[in-house]
Amino acid sequence: MSIVFKKQILIYIVTLFAGIFLLSCSHDPAEEYDEGLDMETIPVQLRLGFRAQTQIVAHRGYWNTRGSAENSLTALDRAVAAGFYGCEFDVRLTRDKVPIILHDDRIQNLVVESTPWSSLQTIKLKNGETIPTLQQYLERAKDREIRLLLEVKVHKSPDDNVLLVNTVVETVARLEMQQQVEYSSFSLDICKHLIQRVPASSVTYLAGDKSPALIKELGLTGISYPYAALLNNPTWIPEAKQLGLTTNVWTVNELQLMHDFILQDIDFIITDKPATLKLMLMYP
Fold it and tell me: pTM of the entire structure?
């Protein structure tokens, strides 16, 4: 083996270990987990650099990672650790009126509205955690650097909708978290009740079937619409901004859509791929 070849091998080994060392020194909490994408490469034409306007909201928390689950306490913890602006989550009532964090109206063939909390609290999420209550979730997030986007789920009974709004608002107030929590719902009636109960808080409508002018007239603070609604109504984002409304889009997981909404200066993007969106916003 020649001396030149030996030197080349030595240089390669030194460079390899130096790279490993530098990588460990520049650790990002989000990189500790696997978003299911291998941190897919952002094409050059989609790299935007830092854009302060658009904020990242983790859909149902940062769940698309190893050892996490939708709407779990771990998903909340990881959203905080990764430095995302916000964490979106869903609240619904059990039969005995306990507010819990769960998106679907049923779990393991049990209808949540018809099932007491005692029968639900032993069910395991995919990461082994139990379903958190609203109290547990808010206590976990209290005074941490993250905004909470709380969706009030729609129930079959209008009385339960009113009860859930009242319960949520009272729990947030009791924990003194009014400045940390924002509200949304697919129900205009729920939104109207929230406006009455918390007039100083952010309340947005989710269904995507009302113009920004009507949203403003109803007294809501913004729109939080599915991306299809905004693509089909391309004037709604600038109209909302002109009216002083906040603009939010969900659930955006495609790179091109992320890019296009950022260029429209959308205020918030709710996504299942928050780490990928973070790369797009920061990638040189």
Answer: 0.86
The reported pLDDT for the residue numbered 116 is 98
Considering all CA atoms of the chain, what is the largest pairwise distance in Å, rounded to the nearest integer?
Answer: 84
Nearest alpha carbon to residue 223 among 212, 213, 209:
212
Q: Which two tokens stand for residue 128?
A: 């082994």
Q: How confident is the model over 57-87, as pLDDT tens digits? A: 999 999 999 999 999 999 999 999 999 999 9
Residue whose C-alpha is closest to residue 135's, from 107, 174, 163: 174
Q: How far is 248 from 230, CA to CA, in rounded Å?
A: 10
**CA angle, 22 then 57 then 187, to 5°:** 170
Residue 37 has pLDDT above 60, yes or no: no
pLDDT higher than threshold 90 for residue 23:
no
Question: What b/e sequence results for 75-95 when a residue is b if at least 16 CB atoms lie within 10 Å of its CB, and e otherwise?
Answer: bbbbbbbbebbbbbbbbbbbb
Distance CA 231, CA 27 (A): 37
Q: Contact, 96 vs 116, CB < 8 A?
A: yes
* Nearest-angstrom CA–CA distance, 108 and 124: 10
- pLDDT tens-digit readout, 176-209: 999 999 999 999 999 999 999 999 999 999 999 9
Give 21-75 as a DSSP string.
HHHHHT--GGGGS--SSSS----GGG-----SS-EEEETTSS-SSTT--TT-HHH
